């Protein structure tokens, strides 16, 4: 194995370990020393790959979003079967995204905290990693479902699908983050009902129910 391959392997180990530790302990409560102990590398080695803790937080949150993008694509291909209308696929994908809070609450909390930390540090978002993908260039399951819905007529041609796409993502993520920060945590069933209601509203919007 070349030195460059070893470097990339160690860099990947550091960021994967950082994501695990940040998720478990919280970004603010985690030190580089904690990550060093967890991955078996020295702090000096870690600082060769990531100059600051903020750099490491940024890399970890991007890794999480990349992982979730791949998971969404895999799940989308499983859930959105041939013969389903585009609107049915939209509803399924919105449910998938909203239920991420139930499946990965600690990761959602980490991402919410990371966004605040990065903003305070003056870090600009990397659009390649930070969701949602631009509608025009995206091949995500949700965008594929929207295009299918326009083609089969289950999505209203009068709807501004691009804005709905962004609004649906921002609304779902916003509710997930608020629930993750709230001191009065909802039960899984209460959270599921709230998220499902939000998904139903956006599904109806794609259908054109709220057009005047």
UniProtKB/TrEMBL annotation:
DNA-binding region: 31-50
Origin superkingdom: Bacteria
Record-linked InterPro entries: Homeodomain-like_sf (IPR009057), HTH-type_TetR-like_transc_reg (IPR050109), HTH_TetR (IPR001647), Tet_transcr_reg_TetR-rel_C_sf (IPR036271)
Annotated signal peptide: none
Residue ranges of domain HTH tetR-type in the record: 8-68
Keywords: DNA-binding, Transcription, Transcription regulation
Protein name: Helix-turn-helix domain-containing protein
